[in-house]
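User: Predict the structure for this protein chain, please.
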Amino acid sequence: MPDHHISRKELKQDKIKETIAHGAEAVISHGQFAALLVGVVVAIGIGYGGWHFYIDRQTAQASVAFDQAMKAYQGRIGPSNPSDPGEPTYSDERARSQDAFNKFSKLADTYPSTNPGKLARYYAALCLEDLEKQNQALEELKKISGSSDKELAAMAQYQMAVIYARTGKMDDAVKLLRVLVDKPSVLVPRPLVLLELAGTLRNSNPKEAANIYQQIKKEFPDSNIADQADRGLDSIAPKS
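Assistant: Here is the predicted structure, written as structure tokens:
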């Protein structure tokens, strides 16, 4: 995931160098200008290195916090495990989701420019969905769906479609899934989206759903997705 703070800083540094160059050229000799330019480049290099160090440190700290939040997200329901006393345990799923949400939200707010911080925002939205706060989850996912990080944006859009389908907004779900089918990504691959699209259309448009299941079997034979497509076809086949 690209770090846009770095790119903005690089752009700013380019403008600084350009401004100094134009101003200096008019009032000093070539030799003096060359010496000044070397000094500017050295100063910028030191600042740029310091910025990288700051980002690396922030990312390292965010990664530790993300690991702790994920442990909560995957925490054990019920009594603690004697073989792993450090594993978080919860009385029920709601308590687990709430604790994970708190941790992910704090991480996202504290380290918003880091990759773990951006991903934490996505997981916080998943926790909101688990807490049956679908509207709030959608609100967060919509923000993430506009991210310049194409993978993260695709993940958010896919999850939005899932929530729309679960809450009866089938048209909205289908619209998003069709977009994702045409623009697959590494983390939201085409076969996964096709399978979700067929499942969403199964009741409202069984003929198209069947065609999509057949398409999955043709494009991705000998795969787990093809097996799921077979089960989907069986579910919409006329019962004798």
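The chain has a mean pLDDT of 80.
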